[in-house]
Amino acid sequence: MVDDNKRAVRGFFEAVSDRRLEDLPRFMAHDVVDHNKIIHGEADEPGAAFEGLRQQLAAFDPLTVRVDELIGEGDRVVARVTQRGVHGGTHPRMPEPTGRSFEVEAIWIFTMAGGRITEIRAVSDRLGFFLQLGWDWPQG
Asked: TM segments (predicted)?
């Protein structure tokens, strides 16, 4: 089970990096809850992660996620990753595109059921992300 869960998480990141949104249902439950708040105001409700990822890919092209380490136990998989991208597109909750690139490390924690991701939590170097993109730090 743990190895299958780790394969699903790796497949998820490969689909994101390859911009294969149509493949995400293979790795994510239809009612997946994404608790990751990259930009203020993202929906924290079942299934909203699909639209959130679509918006992220629209804003960042390219966007790649390299899996540096995977740790699995029971129904959880933890991924240490390096995320790289260029802010060239629009997003409803981001500043105007800067054309600048970024590279940050992140830790993603996935809860799994039936071989699919049911919950996502993540922490990343947001200060580094904002500084590299030239964004102002949020005030509230």
From this structure: none
Distances (CA, A) of 132 to 13, 85, 128, 136: 22, 11, 6, 11
What global pTM score does this model have? 0.91
Report the alpha-carbon angle 22-26-28, nearest 5: 95
Q: Using the CB atoms, write b or e for 85-100: b if 16+ within 10 Å.
A: bbbeeebeebeebeee
Average pLDDT of the segment spanning 125-132: 91
Q: Count H helices, E strands: the chain?
A: 4, 5
d(CA 116, CA 31): 10
Phi, psi of 80 (to 5 degrees): -100, 125
- What's the CA gap between 16 and 18, in Å, rounded? 5
Return the SS3 of 50.
helix
pLDDT digits (tens, 9 = 90+) for 4-28: 999 999 999 999 999 999 999 999 9
Is the dihedral angle over the CA atoms 123, 114, 57, 70 positive or is it negative? Answer: positive
